[in-house]
Amino acid sequence: MPASDDLLGAITFSGCAKVTWGSGKQWLASLCIWHTIHDIPWLGGEGLRLSLVSVGQAALVLSYVH
Predict the structure, then answer these.
(1) What's the CA gap between 8 and 57, in Å, rounded?
(2) For residue 42, what are the CA distances in angstroms to 4, 6, 17, 22, 38?
(3) Which of 24, 27, 53, 62 is paired with 5 by a 20 to 30 Å CA distance?
(4) How far is the C-alpha of 8 from the C-alpha of 66, rounded, in Å?
(5) Tens digits of per-residue pLDDT, 12-43?
(6) Between the CA of residue 56 and those of 11, 52, 59, 60, what are the distances in Å?
């Protein structure tokens, strides 16, 4: 069953404080490849892209706070 754009966005936000922005992008790229290998549609779209931008900005802010 393919992961919806909303679910992927929620996962991205939930991991915001746990991983770096680059690690999150790599994880999502791996998930996309998994979907491709198993011939399952990849539903990551505009919502996921916006989530990644937001996570990247939050990671930048968190790096100054810590």
Answers:
(1) 18
(2) 8, 12, 25, 20, 10
(3) 62
(4) 26
(5) 766 665 666 667 678 778 888 988 999 988 88
(6) 14, 6, 5, 6
